[in-house]
Specification:
By secondary structure, this protein is mainly α. It has a single domain, classed as MFS general substrate transporter like domains (Growth Hormone, Chain: A, Up-down Bundle). It contains 13 helices and no strands. Helix 6 runs antiparallel to helix 10, helix 6 packs antiparallel against helix 12 and helix 7 crosses helix 8. The chain is globular, with a radius of gyration of 21 Å. The two termini are 42 Å apart.
């Protein structure tokens, strides 16, 4: 509901003198997302059985992607035909529709162990202590930040659209097409991998690793695109592989984290990811405006950057596998297989509670 009000605030932006108001509204909207997104992610395990968490995350990602594709296309058409103010009104109304859907989620009473009341700072300290005790969960929570190093694509898309479109009047529609391609690509990735290879822990882990390198190749394709359709294909491919990282990392966090830590883990994940994405978008603007790089050159740099978290994750997986082969299974280094072939959970809630309590002493 609050984001409905914030988006309507964009209607009062008229010229460059109110540019500060745009930044203020964007900061408020992102801050509100910081409450909504972790809560939305954390609630999924309470709505579906554990064996269906991968499917639930894939469907969640796919519905987001389809709505992104539809919304981007609709936004481009509405702006072209009716103007940007009508587009803001339509956008604001979608938050009302979302709030209505959320209100229809049945509340479930769940008997939980009693925990001592703690303030926000103590909750944060507990979350950090938990992440330090569980290295796999910590690394999983940083995967989306690895994805966000190429988050500057959000700034790059309008720049590249202006290069490949000769008619300025077609710019809004062209940007809408590119964002639609982004949504369609994200809808296909996780479902395709799950359909072809299943959802074992090994598939989830190595799909994430492969997706980082395939995403880098997609950016090479983007860097060499010279028309709207090839650029759209590159954006769709990059987002397809990005969605694999996004959905599978979320599913693995759900499978490896006790329910009462999920909100804090996802909050930490979102905070770091937002910071990295902001730096990435600033970096794109700095590279183009101050360093004089072309959009194609920036895309090449993005291809190089996105391989780094891929190398890190691949090395981490190799290290974990060696520990398992050596008979070591400590902390969260004991992966769960959501299909049931390996019933040993990544994290046992009783072990975590014991470790956290020991750390408090």
């Amino acid at each position: 509901m609050l984001r409905f009000v914030v988006v309507l605030g964009f209607l009062f932006v008229e010229d460059q003198s109110t540019l500060w108001f745009i930044y203020a509204l964007v900061i408020i909207e992102i801050s509100l997302s910081g409450f909504f997104e972790p809560a939305r992610s954390a609630i999924i395990p309470s709505l579906v059985p554990k064996e269906h968490l991968v499917t639930a995350n894939a469907l969640s990602g796919s519905t987001w992607s389809v709505m992104l594709a539809f919304g981007a296309a609709l936004g481009g058409v509405v702006v072209s035909l009716f103007g940007i103010q009508v587009a803001f009104i339509v956008d604001a109304c979608t938050f009302l529709i979302s709030a209505w859907f959320i209100s229809k989620i049945p509340s479930q009473e769940k008997v939980e162990k009693e925990h001592k009341q703690k303030n926000g700072f103590q909750e944060l300290v507990d979350a950090m202590r938990f992440l330090l005790k569980e290295p796999v969960v910590l690394v999983l929570s940083l995967l989306k930040s690895g994805l966000a190093v190429a988050g500057g694509i959000m700034t790059l898309i309008p720049l590249m659209a202006s290069q490949v479109l000769a008619k300025p009047a077609m710019l809004s529609l062209g940007i809408g097409i590119l964002y639609s391609a982004r949504g369609l690509g994200a809808a296909l990735g996780p479902l395709m991998v799950k359909r072809l290879f299943g959802e074992t822990a090994t598939v989830l882990h190595w799909s994430i690793a492969a997706a980082f390198f395939l995403k880098a190749i997609s950016y090479l394709f983007i860097a060499n695109s010279d028309n709207l359709w090839s650029l759209s294909f590159g954006v769709a491919a990059a987002t397809l592989f990005g969605s694999i990282i996004w959905v599978f990392s979320s599913a693995l966090i759900h499978l490896s984290t006790p329910d009462h830590y999920l909100g804090r883990v996802f909050s930490f994940e979102l905070a770091i990811m937002t910071l990295v994405m902001g730096i990435s978008n600033w970096g794109v603007g700095f590279a183009v405006d101050d360093l004089g790089l072309t959009s194609n050159q920036v895309a090449l740099w993005m291809a190089a950057l996105v391989t780094l978290p891929g190398l890190f994750w691949t090395g981490f997986l190799t290290f974990i596998r060696k520990k398992l082969q050596g008979g070591e299974c400590t902390d969260s280094v004991c992966p769960i297989d959501p299909s049931g072939f390996n019933p040993v959970p990544m994290v046992r809630e009783e072990q975590i509670e014991g470790k956290v309590q020991l750390g408090e002493k």
